[in-house]
Design a protein that fits this description.
binds nicotinamide-adenine-dinucleotide, 16 helices, 8 strands, 2 domains, alpha/beta, Rossmann fold, N-(1-d-carboxylethyl)-l-norvaline Dehydrogenase, domain 2, single chain
Length: 363
């Protein structure tokens, strides 16, 4: 068991800390806001009580986990810990400044991880004097229960550091997905276009949010459609993740409705009707599959992650019953080409080479 400093006790930091404390690790939560620390500890009380109620933890273990969660002051905590996980706001300069601040305080054996969603690990590594002990650990919300965590090595991350991080994730019950240091890593790279295409369909008045959600539940076997998922994670946060992918080109730029809803910090209105199929369902399915699979095919072209890992990520983090690589093989090359090519044309993008392998992606 190790001692861990979690800097940023917001949505993610609090969730990560509960999971890690309940696996026996000593946690020090650090935040510039006392209110955030109070909220994180109250969340821990609520979550641990719920786990006791559900018999996931004994009362004694829950009490011990909670006792292992302390708050602390950065300068005092950092020299004592084995692992630092930063989960402050998604802002390159803020994260770089924070890493520079902790750098002189770290034990030489300490490992530092960033929970960034969309920044590159390589762009942060240079802020530390030992970049070989730095990597990305990208948890998914709600981090206390979501089993997936992407493990992203920076350009200099040592094997030994990645192996220690892998063992740590497994010891806290997480399923690691190892992927390359590419914008959006494996899962957000296609999850963002998936939600963005849903917003585009609404912008173009081709569908209502409830229709898109219904079609996606059906086509991707998703537990919840994209609009409901966006409302859960907050459209503002989703917009931020999409904006961070915009450097990948026009296809990744946020839809107008996504900008309006996210910037106003509003939620999508989903007027659930009955579950009967509508006349636009096939067109909606083609657009949603086309956009999602285009991003997945690009990921495969770039070697960011394997089809197995992409599907594992979609199943575990997004609860897709029919994850994208399986879906592509099921639909077959001709049907996927028909869905993907119009989108490539609309955004002036080359058709990904991996399209030729659809139908046998897992062989
Ligand atoms: N929310 C998600 O669904 C999600 C999922 C995966 C990864 N992430 C990533 O995790 C990180 C945190 O996201 P979040 O949603 O938890 O944000 P959040 O806004 O809920 O929490 C961020 C916390 O960081 C604190 N903070 C900011 N600057 C600080 C500093 N210099 N020192 C100490 N504390 C500071 C804030 O007070 C706040 O409590 C981001 O990089 C985000 O991209 C978010």
């Amino acid at each position: 068991m190790i001692s861990i400093a979690i800097i940023g006790a917001g949505t993610m930091g609090s969730g990560i800390s509960i999971g890690a404390a309940s696996s026996g690790n000593q946690i020090y939560l650090i935040d510039e806001s006392d209110a955030a620390l109070d909220t994180a500890l109250r969340k821990a009380d609520t979550v641990l009580a719920r786990w006791v109620e559900k018999e996931r933890l004994s009362e004694e273990d829950a009490k011990a986990a909670r006792a292992r969660m302390k708050t602390g002051v950065l300068e005092e905590v950092i020299p004592r810990v084995d692992l630092v996980i930063e989960a402050v706001f998604e802002d390159l300069t803020l994260k770089q400044t924070l890493l520079r601040r902790i750098d002189p305080l770290l034990k030489s054996s300490a490992i530092v991880a960033t929970n960034t969603s969309c920044l590159k690990v390589a762009d942060l590594a240079g802020s530390l004097s030992r970049p070989e002990r730095f990597l990305g650990l990208h948890y998914f919300s709600p981090a206390e229960v979501n089993p997936l965590c992407e493990l992203v090595r920076g350009p200099q991350t040592l094997d030994e550091v990645a192996e220690t991080a892998l063992a740590f994730l497994k010891s806290t019950g997480k399923q690691p997905l190892q992927c390359r240091d590419s914008s959006g890593f494996a899962v957000n790279r296609f999850f963002c276009p998936y939600t963005n295409e849903a917003a585009r369909l609404v912008d173009e008045e081709l569908a209502e949010p409830a229709e898109v959600d219904r079609v996606c539940r059906d086509v991707f076997g998703a537990a919840a459609g994209p609009f409901l998922v966006m409302n859960i994670i907050k459209p503002r946060i989703n917009l931020n993740a999409i904006r961070n992918l915009s450097t990948l080109g026009r296809f990744y730029e946020p839809a107008d409705g996504m900008i309006r809803t996210g910037d106003a910090d509003q939620f999508w209105t989903i007027e659930e009707g009955d579950d009967t199929p509508g006349p636009n369902d096939a067109a909606i399915a083609d657009r949603m599959v086309g956009a999602t699979c285009l991003a997945v095919l690009q990921l495969l072209d770039e070697g960011v992650a394997s089809p197995q890992d992409i599907d594992m990520g979609a199943s575990m983090a997004l609860k897709f019953g029919i994850p994208p690589c399986t879906l592509m093989d099921n639909w077959g090359q001709d049907r996927i080409r028909a869905a993907v090519e119009p989108i490539c044309k609309a955004y002036d993008l080359p058709v990904p080479d991996t399209l030729e392998r659809v139908g046998r992606l897992f062989t």
